[in-house]
Amino acid sequence: FEGVEEALARIGGKAYAISALSQATAAAVDRGDVPSVPSAIAKYHCTTMGREVVSDMMDVIGGKGIILGPRNFAGRAWQAAPIGVTVEGANIMTRSLLIFGQGAILCHPWVMKEMQAAQDPDTRRGLEEFDQSLFGHIRFGISN
C-alpha cells in the first residue's frame, strides 16, 4: 500500500502548499500591494498543483471516481480540473506572458523607466527621461 501512501502524501503536501501560497498572496493584497506578477505565479502553481491533486485522488479511489452518482465525491472535481488552468488565460499564456513578460519588465533596471517616460504627459520632460533611460539601457546592454 505504499503507492496509496505516496499519493496521499503528495495530496497533503500540495494542499498545504496551495493554502500557504494563497495566504501569502492575499497578505500582499492586505498590505496594499498590487501583486500582479506574484498573483500570476500563484495562479499558475496552484492550478497546476490542484490538477495533480485531482489526478492523484482518482488514482487512489479508482473506478468509483469515474461513475457519476450521489456517492461520488470526486467525479465533478475530475471534470472541473481543466477549468482552473484555462479560465483567465491558459497556464501556458500565464507562464509566458505574465510571469516572464512582466517579471522581465519589472526586474529590468531600464525598461520600466523607458515605458514611464514614453507615457509622460509632459513631452519635454518625458523625452529627456526617455533619452536618459534609453542610453542607460544601451550602456547596460553593452556592459553585460
Automatic annotation (TrEMBL):
InterPro entries: AcylCo_DH-like_C (IPR036250), AcylCo_DH/oxidase_C (IPR009075), FadE_C (IPR015396). Coiled coil: none annotated. This is DUF1974 domain-containing protein. It holds the Pfam family Acyl-CoA_dh_1. GO terms for molecular function: acyl-CoA dehydrogenase activity. The keyword Cell wall biogenesis/degradation does not apply. Residues 2-96 form the Acyl-CoA dehydrogenase/oxidase C-terminal domain. Residues 105-144 form the Acyl-CoA dehydrogenase C-terminal bacterial-type domain. The keyword Ribonucleoprotein does not apply. It comes from the Bacteria. One of its GO terms (biological process) is fatty acid beta-oxidation using acyl-CoA dehydrogenase. Keywords: Flavoprotein.
